[in-house]
Task: inverse folding
């Protein structure tokens, strides 16, 4: 790609923290046509278009606090002749039209001859590694809270969580589930009134819930670095979160807390009995309250198909124990949809509306 002397300057308007004196590692790109600018190396920018090649520029960033921007300006590398690359940086949520991912950066490019391009920027790691994950579209698990013992926070079961997606937020705050709306503006997220369940819990669940709800009250600033999300309230309270691992059936022994008795009711196991499930290698096994069982299963996304179970042949005493076993195994075989949310396993019948069983890690 040739960069001719006297050509029009390149102008890229991309988001960054207003007035940021320190250069942040940014990767900016756009579509129709495809273009990119790499600002991950201090003092250097690489502008590329697949059909025309790339060009490097050397320069530096200067804050423009009165405009709420900073500007990166550079000349062609190696002392070559050509126009400058000027990069203006500004905060602002930007929707990637190819992937529907919301990035923290807006980008606009003015090319020689008056051509205008638009796109988004994402923040790369300081070492030039993978880009920071976006706030939205993933489940975040609380790792630490202001004023709370980090060991207690980390050991909470189910864990404290929050999800931001499409203007709706939901999660688990230590005792109750919550849901509500939110809006994004730059590095600020504002939650509306939160609705939720109204269970009463003991300690430390109540203290964890009060601390987490305290952080979530009102506008928050957020930052994502090295895979960790930090939420900070106006009063200075903070919550540090990490992305929760994707849900998995396997690797856990599940203790059943409720199952469908075949009469459209989800009932708890009888006192003194234990119903368990372990999924591994295409076989689910466990205790049906009296006998142990094994059954083949297959999974396709959130869909599951479980074959009738083979069991041991014991006859157990106790009122209703054998009937419970029959009902539980029938509910298991009829389950067609599964999900794990806040460490709880939910399995539903065809259609996904009627619950077959629920379980928690044992």
Result:
């Amino acid at each position: 790609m040739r960069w001719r002397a006297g050509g029009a300057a390149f102008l890229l308007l991309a988001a960054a923290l207003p007035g940021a004196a320190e250069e942040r590692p940014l990767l900016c790109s756009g579509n129709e046509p495809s273009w990119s600018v790499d600002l991950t190396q201090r003092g250097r920018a690489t502008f590329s278009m697949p059909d025309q090649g790339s060009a490097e520029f050397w320069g530096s960033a200067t804050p423009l606090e009165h405009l709420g921007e900073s500007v990166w300006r550079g000349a062609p590398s190696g002392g070559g002749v050509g126009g400058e690359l000027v990069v203006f940086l500004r905060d602002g949520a930007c929707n990637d039209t190819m992937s529907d991912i919301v990035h923290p950066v807006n980008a606009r490019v003015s090319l020689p001859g008056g051509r205008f391009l638009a796109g988004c920027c994402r923040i790369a790691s300081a070492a030039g590694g993978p880009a920071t994950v976006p706030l939205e579209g993933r489940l975040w698990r609380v790792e630490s809270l202001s004023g709370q013992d980090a060991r207690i926070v980390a050991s909470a079961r189910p864990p404290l969580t929050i999800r931001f997606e499409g203007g709706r937020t939901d999660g688990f705050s230590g005792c109750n589930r919550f849901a509500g709306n939110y809006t994004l503006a730059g590095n600020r997220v504002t939650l509306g009134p939160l609705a939720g369940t109204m269970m009463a819990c003991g300690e430390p669940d109540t203290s964890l819930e009060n601390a987490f709800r305290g952080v979530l009250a009102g506008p928050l600033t957020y930052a994502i670095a090295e895979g960790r999300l930090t939420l900070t309230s106006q009063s200075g309270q903070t919550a540090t979160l990490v992305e929760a691992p994707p849900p998995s059936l396997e690797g856990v022994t599940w203790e059943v807390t409720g199952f469908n008795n075949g009469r459209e009711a989800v009932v708890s196991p009888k006192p003194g009995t234990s119903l368990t499930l372990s999924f591994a290698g295409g076989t689910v096994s466990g205790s049906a309250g009296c006998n142990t069982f094994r059954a083949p299963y297959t999974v396709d996304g959130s869909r599951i198909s479980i074959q009738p179970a083979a069991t041991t042949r014991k006859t157990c005493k106790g009122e209703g124990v054998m009937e419970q076993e029959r009902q539980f195994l029938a509910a298991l075989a009829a389950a067609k949809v599964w999900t794990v949310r806040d460490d709880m396993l939910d399995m539903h019948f065809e259609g996904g509306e009627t619950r077959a069983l629920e379980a928690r890690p044992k």
